[in-house]
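Ticket opened by: R.M.
Priority: normal
Category: complex prediction / small molecule

The reporter submitted a protein together with nicotinamide-adenine-dinucleotide and asked that the result be attached to this ticket for the collaborator who will pick it up next week. Submitted input follows.
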Amino acid sequence: MSLNYNYRGGLVHLQNYVYGEFEDTEDYIDSYNPATGQVWAKVPDSHQGDVNRAVYSAKSAFNHWAGIGYAKRAQYIMKVAKLLEKRMDEFAKAESRDQGKPVGLAKTMDIPRAVLNLRSFAESWTHILNSSNTLNEIGTVNYSSRSPLGVAGLIAPWNLPLYLLTFKLAPALMAGNTVVCKPSEMTSVTAFLLAQVFHEAGVPRGVFNLVCGYGHSAGEFIVRHPDVRMVSFTGSTAVGAKIAAIAAPMMKKMSLELGGKNAAIVFGDANLERAIPTLIKASFLNQGEICLCTSRIFVHSSIYEEFVEKFVRATKRITVGDPDDPNSFMGALNNLGHLKKVKTYIEFAKEDGGQILCGETVTTLNLPRELQKGYYCQPTVITRLQDTARCMQDEIFGPVTCIACFDEEHEVIARANNVKYGLCASVWSENLGTIHRVANKLDVGTVWANCWLVRSLDMPFGGTKGSGTGREGTHHSLEAYTEEKTICLKI
Ligand code: NAD
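Result attached by the on-call engineer:
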């Protein structure tokens, strides 16, 4: 399959996209293929000047883009979605090579979801932006209208690169904002391919701008730029806090989707035939590199032994290997630093008195020679940790899950909430009363009951506590990407 990028010196050569032109930069960053540990792409290392030009480009395109109206904007975004869908296989292959995930997963989850993000906001916001809210009160007509903000800075992480970028892009553009996007320096390839799609779709110059580079330089320049009116960031809690410290005094709008330490609670009456396969996915899909992955499983004492035995048996059946192989359920972790971090946490678990039931340190992976320098990690299950242990408190963001035992409902709710994060949780029971009671008391943005990762775009998405601020989704992204104004007319 031929990929639509330039090759220089045998490596994929990415460019920024500013005011409708593909541009080189002075410096480049090496980007590694996680499956082999080899450099495969050169990513622009954008400096202040590159970011300034991208913001200027977006600012100068704003009045035109905001003025053409939502119906025309929707036409452009639908065209981008269609062209992206036509290149599904190419994008899936590129996402896998850049991120480490199996091609099959990119083909069934990441890229189709990116297409859906674009289509869904283009379709639904044509109606939503058309409605206004009128009230007749004491001789006045009140209504509110929504306006785009101007230039939006969109900063994305490396775990679901195109999926998460498009979840920001589609509403930002539909609202009439223009954008400067910065993907992770470790996974910039599909954002670059997306710039080609915007170009081909004929989206007016300056509406979509891409600057690649490091977070501490390109990312921070975007956040600090006075003409960037809002920042939508998905990434770690530590970086989210840095961004908030810069953007809040500048009174910028912010949407922060941050880390998680998500619990599953399995009650004694849970249907284990359903719970175990789903919790295996929840723990290890995408190598456990999804912010919504489960990393703490609390199981009622009446079924604890049975659950652990079945869960470990199922974990041992997971295939880890070549992302190109359709039989691989897990590919490679995204980068070497991250692999080291995950392995360090497994060592912490041992120091903290945990028992490693399967995975790293228990078995070794047999990989073909060409993959031996890749960043592979086996799905690892740990028990016997105290709730205060590092693996029970910190976000590991890899294929590591801890199982703990509980007796009482009120006890497990307190233990599930006893972390600094509040992104999501799942509850497993056949009793509706239990589900509703527990779901209500969990301090998180999403609770799944007897399922996981069933994501309707119509539902609000976001976290509490260290997992972020704001909600996004068909209706909720309006708050992030528009400014609402009240207009009061005396009649
Ligand atoms: P990260 O915070 O290191 O980086 C995210 C993005 O921010 C990258 O593009 C990076 O270059 C940029 N960045 C880094 N420092 C910056 C700075 N000072 N200023 C501006 N930008 C900066 O996160 P990551 O390692 O790429 O991704 C993993 C994290 O993302 C995990 O914590 C995970 O839970 C979180 N995540 C959250 C969600 C969610 O929806 N809540 C979804 C996916 C991932």
